[in-house]
Specification:
about 290 residues, Alpha-Beta Plaits, eight-stranded mixed beta sheet, six-stranded antiparallel beta sheet, about 25% helix, about 35% strand, globular
Length: about 290
């Protein structure tokens, strides 16, 4: 629930540094605002891509430019120059670079929760891994046609990023027609999966999702480990519109108000023994994403 609050711009909650740039983070519960200062010579592909691990920036940026100029190129080749005293909306799937000899200074109100974020103190952490995938994507692409399908997938990815930001998830990478994301809480991961399913349904898409909680290894722009493989296999078992979770995740969210039905035991490729799975049985009740700690 929103509450009355303010923070000094002189005291950011976090400062993330990249070559030729920095991002100052201000957190107001479930809203994250970033002040970006990118120096002349800064280029996303050179200085942030190694952290992100994706071919192009997959974050949606909406904000105000205070100074400097940024060149932007979308995946389809569309370009734009963003200058001072302007507001901007930059969709996911872009490259960017500073133009001229003035720093590009902005306040960004979207997609800054995980932008240029690296946890250098821990290489192995306990996290909730989420995989999503569009069901029957090939048939849907043929039905809609190439142009409309690209637009639909782009909008779907944008909605996914909005839900990840809302539930404090970190987009690790896109996986063709879905995403791999990491959360610091199992309940947030399950609620985000449910919200993504509903958002996809509004676009006429059916997706499936899988969540597993376990230890993962953080590497540049990616996560590895058995927990990642298990989450992917769990997603593959789910049907259209379904969120499947492991027994570990189901136990960790006990008392959260989330309801599940027994989905039976399954042999998951790459994991020894059979595993008990559960299916989210109904849309979860509203909650405060920022306050969810499971």
């Amino acid at each position: 629930m929103a509450r009355l609050q303010s923070k000094s711009l002189a005291a950011p909650d976090e400062v993330r540094r990249t070559p030729f740039g920095k991002v100052e983070i201000y957190t107001l519960d479930d809203m994250v605002i970033g002040r970006t200062v990118f120096e002349p010579g800064w280029h996303w592909i050179e200085h942030v891509q190694p952290l992100a691990g994706t071919r192009l920036c997959q974050y949606h940026h909406v904000g105000v430019c205070l100074g400097g100029r940024l060149g932007v190129r979308m995946e389809d080749g569309t370009t734009l120059e963003v200058g001072p005293d302007t507001v901007f909306d930059i969709p996911p799937g872009h490259d960017g670079w500073v133009i001229g000899d003035e720093p590009w200074v902005t306040y960004d109100f979207a997609g800054m929760r995980s932008f240029a974020h690296v946890d250098e103190s821990t290489q192995r952490i306990l996290g909730a891994v989420l995989f999503t995938d569009i069901v029957d994507s090939t048939a849907e692409a043929e039905r809609l046609g190439a142009a409309r399908w690209r637009e639909t997938v782009a909008l779907h990815n944008e909605r996914i990023q909005q839900e990840l930001d809302r539930f404090r998830g970190r987009l690790i990478k896109t996986t063709g027609d879905g995403v791999l994301a990491l959360f610091d809480g199992s309940e947030r991961a399950v609620r985000a999966a449910a919200a993504i399913c509903l958002a996809a349904k509004a676009l006429g898409l059916a997706i499936r999702a899988g969540v597993h909680t376990g230890e993962v290894e953080l590497v540049a722009g990616d996560v590895r480990g058995l927990a990642v493989h298990i989450a992917a296999r769990i997603m593959a078992v789910a049907g259209p519109g379904q969120v499947y979770v492991s027994g570990t995740t189901q136990e960790l969210v006990a008392g959260s108000g989330l309801a599940f039905v027994d989905a039976g035991t399954h042999e998951l490729k790459g994991a020894s023994g059979s595993r008990q799975l559960y299916c989210l049985s109904e849309p979860p009740p509203p909650s405060d994403p920022a306050g969810t700690g499971a």
